[in-house]
Amino acid sequence: RSGTYEWVVVTSPNGAERLMSACRDARDLGNARVAAVGAGTAARLREFGVVADVVPSRAVAEGLLEEFSSPTTDRASVLIARAAVGRSVLPDGLAAMGWLVDDVAAYQTVARPLDDRRRAQVSSADVVTFTSSSTVRNLVSDVGVEGLPTTVVSIGPITSATAAELGVAVDREAAPHSIEALVGAVVAAVASS
Predict the structure, then answer these.
(1) Which helix H or strand E contains 80, and what residues bound it?
(2) Of 37, 75, 89, 130, which one's alpha carbon is 20 to 30 angstroms from that of 83?
(3) Which residues pair with 82 in a beta bridge?
(4) Spans of the chain below 50 pLDDT
(5) Helices vs strands, H then E, count in the chain
(6) How many angstroms separate the CA atoms of 181 and 183, rounded?
(7) DSSP state of 173
(8) Is pTM beyond 0.90 here?
């Protein structure tokens, strides 16, 4: 039960959806304070009647760590609801601060292989957007770097770093790191080409 924690941390709208679908309602969170990585995650929580106590200005794990302070007791605990495959920055950082961390895989991103028609659609598109490191890895694995459109837009620095590691040049990065800003970055990229 999530109500036994001092904090419940949700790192994405998918994580919010999965966490709240496992609860009868917001009362299952008890007295836990809630932190959401990003405005989109906070908005998804609000749809379930949960208002995040903390939403860092930088929608990345590092931004949330900057908002946390050390626990006041040696038994203070945090539940993190996030993707099964993700960076360990947040759970490791909170544990280093002295928090007891339960890192729960709330959901798993599963790649769907593209058929030839979809591969052709990707390569003929004007822009590709990446919303997470897994989206970069999965699409590059399926179509290769050469199969991507010439204009690439990323939601944020972690996603952009993954793209760079895989040889994908990112033309624009959303700021702030939200879907709304990603759309703005796409518009700006198209307008400048």
Answers:
(1) strand 77-83
(2) 75
(3) 105
(4) none
(5) 8, 7
(6) 5
(7) E
(8) no
pLDDT at res. 117: 95
Q: Quick check: 160 and 189 in contact, CB under 8 A?
A: no
How high is the pLDDT of residue 61?
A: 86
Is the CB of residue 141 less than 8 Å from the CB of residue 111? yes
CA-nearest of 12, 16, 79, 77 to 49 is 16
| Residue 172, helix vs strand vs coil | strand
Q: Could you tell me which residues come within 8 angstroms of residue 29 by beta carbon, excluding any fewer than 6 positions away?
A: 2, 3, 8, 23, 50
Question: What is the residue-wise DSSP string for 92-154?
Answer: HHHHHHT-EEEEEEEE--------HHHHHHHHH-SEEEE-SHHHHHHHHHHH-GGGS-SEEEE
**Model pLDDT, residue 154:** 95
Closest CA to 114 of 105, 123, 106: 123
Burial of 115 from C-beta contacts in 10 A (0-12 / 13-18 / 19+): exposed
DSSP-derived letter for residue 31 is T
**Residue 47, CA distances (Å) to 2, 21, 103, 134 in order:** 18, 12, 23, 26
Report the distance separating Cα 179 and Cα 40, nearest Å: 8
As a whole number of Å, the CA-based R_g of the chain is: 18
pLDDT value for 177: 83
